[in-house]
Design goal:
It is a single chain. By secondary structure, this protein is an alpha/beta fold. The protein is built from 12 helices and 18 strands. The chain has helices at residues 21-35, 60-78, 90-102, 118-126, 174-178, 186-198, 224-232, 252-260, 277-282, 289-302, 321-334, 361-384; strands spanning 12-17, 40-41, 50-55, 84-89, 108-110, 156-160, 162-163, 182-183, 203-207, 239-242, 264-269, 307-314, 338-343, 390-398, 404-408, 419-421, 430-439, 442-447. The chain has a 6-stranded parallel sheet with strand order 6-9-10-11-12-13.
């Protein structure tokens, strides 16, 4: 973070972010608002007067983590007088007043829908009448749009193209937390992408609750394929990656747009959740093993080298042993590079939590482990098959142990493993490297 020129007496604010990349972008926007105010933004909570905890509320495990971290930060606050704790994000939106009544340790709560007003909340918390929100970022000119987020903090940056969800999946809390589907206009996306590239991003990762539905609520006929084509044409962008594409959004138009641009990663993250038509119907989703295999065949007809990630849920209410076996066979036949496996978690307020036939928790965990074992066998073999090949690697510097690391185009940030390099490469540089070995999903490679 750049050295501040603000008065030393102003309150210092730090952020702690839990959950998915969408939360990271939300925190970026709140931090940008703080940076554009007379508050001071700091990296370390030890230097802060106020900590904003941005929480996840998607599943019970995330809620429990949020409460645990909140209690740790409450102890941090109580260690010195005048420290303050603000809890924001999805957990606040999901539980509202109930959370405020149970987590009395916090000084303020901010729902997702109210995060744009974070500076006003902080001003009230610290009692600073002189705290003001600047009208623009210091770097903005009259001819440049103000981008309300922080500069890229590394060679990869997330670009949130939408928020909310229009779907009615019976297990999901997202619509109640983040509201109806809202696409961000393409000119706004292009402005933010240019800003990220100018501040150091070599890779932009498109995220949203459902990126494939982009444009459905906007006037005109533009769709995700248009977003991909326009962003891929920006000067200075080396990689463009698309995440969170629902199966009905894997259109020929999108695949053609991805295949046509050399800087678009041949990578798709498609959360299928299951392969049994009966289970999918109970989830208020569509599809079947045969339909999904056909979709994968179509993807590979456009991009034979496509890397595909998915996620599946084990132990959904009504799921039978036959359904599990079908899902395992599907994973084996589909040849996914990466599979996220989650035991079903009944969530308050969802339709699925009221459905009959919930398997015992130990059964759900056991089924998830069977799926994990099947997925790992396929994915680790796919990684090993890359030994001897030459891949393009984006350097991320060195890890905590000083080992040079990066990612190749088939690895999304934070979820798909890394490439261990034989020598150090400047962060942000892209180099050719030959894969010489693997460690599970991680690749070992020598820089050419």
């Amino acid at each position: 973070m750049a050295e501040s020129t603000k008065p030393d007496h102003m309150a210092r604010v730090a952020f702690v972010t839990l959950g998915c990349p969408k939360n990271e972008v939300d925190s970026d926007r709140m931090m940008a608002a703080v940076e554009s105010s007379t508050l001071l933004l700091v990296d370390d909570i030890a230097d802060a007067d106020v900590v904003v905890l941005n929480t996840c509320g998607f599943i019970q495990d995330a809620v429990e983590e949020g409460v645990e971290v909140a209690m740790e930060l409450a102890a941090w606050r109580d260690a010195f007088p005048d420290r303050k704790l603000v809890i924001a994000g999805c957990m606040v939106s999901r539980y509202g007043t109930d959370l405020e009544q149970s987590l009395t340790e916090a000084d303020a709560f901010v729902r997702v829908s109210d995060e744009a007003g974070i500076v006003s909340v902080l001003a009230e918390v610290v009692g600073g009448d002189e705290i003001a929100l600047a009208s623009s970022t210091p770097s903005a000119s009259a001819d440049e749009p103000v981008v309300s987020r922080m500069p890229a903090s590394g060679p990869s940056a997330y670009l949130q193209i939408s928020d909310g969800c229009f779907r009615t999946c019976t297990y999901c809390t997202i619509p109640s937390i983040r509201g109806p589907y809202r696409s961000r206009p393409l000119p706004e996306l292009l402005d933010e992408a240019r800003f990220l590239i100018e501040t150091g991003a070599r890779e932009i990762v498109l995220i949203g609750q459902d990126t494939s539905a982009w444009g459905r609520d906007l006037p005109g006929s533009e769709v995700l394929a248009d977003v991909v084509s326009r962003l891929a044409g920006l000067d200075g962008l080396s990689w463009l990656r698309v995440m969170y594409v629902q199966p009905d959004g894997v259109t020929d138009e999108l695949l053609a747009a991805m295949a046509a641009q050399s800087n678009v990663c041949r990578y798709l993250d498609i959360p299928l959740q299951h392969a049994s038509a009966d289970v999918l119907k109970a989830m208020h989703r569509s599809g079947s093993s045969a339909q999904f295999l056909g979709m994968l065949e179509r993807i590979r007809s456009y991009m034979p080298d496509a890397v595909v990630r998915t996620s599946v849920i084990a132990g959904f209410p009504g799921e039978t042993s036959a359904d599990v076996n079908e899902l395992i066979r599907f994973i084996q036949d589909a040849g996914f590079d990466y599979v996220g496996v989650f035991p079903y978690s009944p969530e308050d307020g969802t339709v699925a939590a009221t459905l009959p036939g919930l398997p015992a928790k130990r059964t759900r965990i056991a089924r998830a482990q069977r799926l994990r074992d099947a997925a790992d066998k396929v994915g680790v073999e796919a990684a090993a098959a890359r030994i001897g090949s030459v891949v393009e690697v984006l350097s991320e510097g060195v890890d905590e142990e000083g080992v040079p690391v990066g990612r190749w185009r088939g690895q999304a940030p934070e979820v798909d493993g890394i490439v261990l390099l034989d020598r150090e490469v400047e962060p942000g540089d892209i180099v050719a490297a030959r894969v010489i070995d693997t460690l599970g999903y991680d690749l070992e490679a020598e820089v050419l």
